[in-house]
Amino acid sequence: MARACAPMILEAMPRESSRVSQIAPVPLNLKGKDPALVGLGSCIVNAQARCNDCHTLSPQAEYSPGGIPYFGQHPTIVNPAVYLGGGRDFGPVAGPGTPDIVSRNLTPDKTGLPEGGHTFAQFVDIMRNGTDYDHFHPTCVNGVLTGTCLPAPFDGALLQIMPWPILYNLTDHDLLAIYEYLSAVPCIAGPPRPQYFAQRLQVAPRSGQCGHDERFHRPP
Predict the structure, then answer these.
(1) How far, in Å, CA of 182 to CA of 214, rounded?
(2) What is the DSSP letter of 70?
(3) What does residue 150 show for φ and ψ, rounded to 5 degrees?
(4) CA dist., res. 134 & res. 1, Å (int)
(5) Would the pTM of this model clear 0.85, i.e. be above it?
(6) Which terminus of the chain has fewer CB atoms gathered within 10 Å of its CB, N or C?
(7) Average pLDDT, integer, range 41-59
(8) pLDDT band (50, 70, 90) for residue 110
């Protein structure tokens, strides 16, 4: 998947930050990071994997007014306020009485680590095996629906909808580039938790800290 990006980023691109952020729709924090690696990650995330299509608030919020490509508006302007911030609600994919599947916030949390503070080893496990470290929707016990569990044959320990079975084919270097890029994007603070989601998780709603809202990231 990343091979089309590699020549452009790794061979032709100088190490200036202006070129590294060429296709990134937001300013990047390159302090302490390898610009070429960030550039490759940007290419994979933005030009190939299209991560923001799902990891944004909604299709309606994905683009900024005046830059909505489907309205024939050019150039395309990605909405930086929700870029990779998660929150898209795919509904109860396992049927009525089961939890909504909501995309996670991929931006750095207050620790500076991307994707809710996951380590690179955890990130690789997520991308290779679909492991859900948030445990938002465990498998139902004895088939009893609780509103927060997934019934069999769904495996509640795995991320649903996310195309990790395809992303599994990325190389270790590709995954490191994605992780490096996600650590360079601006932190997006999570919005207040919707009341219905608070009820399903049986916790009180509150506003999230920067890049660390419990609706998309692991609880504190």
Answers:
(1) 18
(2) G
(3) -105, 130
(4) 27
(5) no
(6) C
(7) 95
(8) confident
Top-confidence residue, 22 or 173:
173
In sequence order, the 6+-apart residues with CB closer than 8 A to the CB of 216 are 85, 86, 87, 102, 103, 104, 105, 116, 190, 208
> Is the predicted pLDDT of residue 138 greater than 90, yes or no?
yes
Q: Are 106 and 56 in contact (CB under 8 A)?
A: no
Q: Which pLDDT does position 209 carry in this prediction?
A: 61
| HSE-up of residue 106 (Cα within 13 Å, Cβ side) | 25
What the block records as the tokens of 116 is 């809710």
Residues listed for the chain: 220
Please choose, from the candidates 40, 197, 180, the residue with its C-alpha nearest in 3D space to the C-alpha of residue 120. Answer: 180
Helices (H), the chain: 5-6, 17-20, 35-43, 114-117, 120-129, 164-167, 172-182, 195-201
Interval 195-215 mean pLDDT: 42
Buried b (16+ CB within 10 A) or exposed e, 158-175: bbbebebeebeebeeebb
CA end-to-end span of the chain: 35
